[in-house]
Amino acid sequence: MTDVPERALVVMAHPDDADFSCAGTVALWTEGGAEVTYLMVTDGDAGGDELTMDSSEIAAMRQEEQRKAAAEVGVEDVRFLGHPDGRVLASLELRRDISRVIRQVRPQRMVIPNPERDWDSIAASHPDHMATGEAAMNAVYPDARNPHAHRELLAEEGLKPWTVPEVWIAGGPKPNHRSDITTSFERKVAALAAHKSQIGDIAGLEPMLRQWMAANAAEAGMPEGRLAEVFHTVRTA
């Protein structure tokens, strides 16, 4: 499951989630010729502690930041569903919206947030992340592959069912795959640097990221100096 897919879909809750969790791996895939689509469930309009802009201005800014970040790792197709930031629910509506994009993109691989709460890292267990992970997995199975689910997708939009063979859960309580991103780490940092409204000091963040990725690599028994992102890979077909 370490080969480069022809098409991949990354579904995350907010702008910058993909860049923290999987941008190094995505850079490797695009270098290998993969077509990768980013799907953000929200526009990130509730992000940040300053209330100097209204929600629509924040949303436009964060969308642009995400597009710039995606370009740093070779992703040109960036989509936003516009669900309310901070109020994401694993609803049938969200499952339908994700299923629609699955049927449009027809990916062989998806990357999604961890749908389970991590009691050792509350900050990693944002409700929007968990809800997005739950809805995305339900969209993979059973919705996107089932012609009877969300019938309007086929009847009105002509989108045929699609089976996603595998899902990579970013993080997760039982990681079983570590992706060596040593050669793409700088591109991951460049992607994160594009989120200027969220990350004020990328120079201060970089050594923390390096330490985090190095610990991931060490847990996998990789040689000293290697850096890795962590996933729980799941066969779905």
Main pleated sheet:
7 strands, mixed
Strand order of the largest sheet: 3-2-1-4-5-7-6
* Derived structural class: alpha/beta
Mean pLDDT value: 94
SSE layout and pairings?
Blueprint: E1 7-12, H1 17-21, H2 23-31, E2 35-42, H3 55-72, E3 77-83, H4 92-105, E4 109-113, H5 127-143, H6 152-155, E5 166-170, E6 177-180, H7 185-193, H8 202-219, E7 228-235
Parallel strand pairs: 1-2, 1-4, 2-3, 4-5
Antiparallel strand pairs: 5-7, 6-7
Quickly describe the structure.
It contains eight helices and seven strands. Strands 3-2-1-4-5-7-6 form a seven-stranded mixed sheet, sandwiched between helices.
Task: Report on this structure.
- This protein is of the alpha/beta class and 237 residues long.
- The protein has helices at residues 17-21, 23-31, 55-72, 92-105, 127-143, 152-155, 185-193, 202-219; strands spanning 7-12, 35-42, 77-83, 109-113, 166-170, 177-180, 228-235.
- Helix 3 packs antiparallel against helix 7 and helix 7 (185-193) runs antiparallel to helix 8 (202-219).
- The mean pLDDT is 94.
